[in-house]
Amino acid sequence: QTPRLHPADPLARARERAWMEFGSAVLNGIAVLYNAADAAALARAQAALRARFEQLDAVLGDGPWFAGARFGLVDAVFGPVFRYFDVIPEDGLFGGLSRVQA
Question: Which part of the chain is the GST C-terminal domain (predicted)?
């Protein structure tokens, strides 16, 4: 049988769709970070991005995927976000967020 990319349960599926939208917002936040016009705008973008990573860290389990052992569309949505982890200046964005860092 083909693995499901969404949970079978409708409520769990709706939650994952919400996290997919959240992942898109994180990616947009990274774009804001890179396009900050000045130091103040950069600081605001970093704070907003840090807040989103804190939210994400609070809901992540032991993994390795968003839903634990099952790879899903949420993981695919966050793929483009993770590619920036090597180039985003640390500057406190990930400190203490062990699940996001993993």
Answer: 9-102
Rounded distance, CA 18 to CA 100, Å? 18
Q: How far apart are CA 25 and CA 36, in angstroms?
A: 16
pLDDT tens column, 44-86: 999 999 999 999 999 998 889 998 888 999 999 999 998 888 8
Question: How many domains are contained in the chain?
Answer: 1
Structural domain span for residue 15:
10-101
Please tell me the pTM assigned to this model.
Answer: 0.87
